[in-house]
Amino acid sequence: MSAATDWFDGAEGEPADTKQKEKTLPPCTDDKFKEMCVDVTDQESGEIKKMGWRSLVQSGSKTADQLLAQISTKYTFTDAQKETIKSWGETA
Predict the structure, then answer these.
(1) pLDDT-derived band of residue 7, with 50, 70 and 90 as boundaries?
(2) Is residue 7 part of a domain?
(3) Could you tell me how far CA 51 lies from the centroid of its own chain?
(4) What pLDDT score does 18 carry?
(5) 50-84 burial by CB neighbour count: b if 16+ within 10 A, else e?
(6) pTM score
């Protein structure tokens, strides 16, 4: 037989195996930011294979807030990077 402490976290009384572990996200480096902002094109045909972050916002496929919500699950961003992304959605 096992002890209660094997099954429950004593502080909160929740099962120990279901307690969420905090995930630490890597920062989006300046080089990675620049790489992800541009479109990926086919070298032979010149067609866009993957839209960059900037094109996604400027084309209206995503709002700046939608893009930030999506990519913030993979990276952490500086305030300057967030402001740059938000500026792509502003109309002149």
Answers:
(1) low
(2) no
(3) 16
(4) 47
(5) ebbbbbbbeeeebebeebbeebeeeeebeeebeeb
(6) 0.69
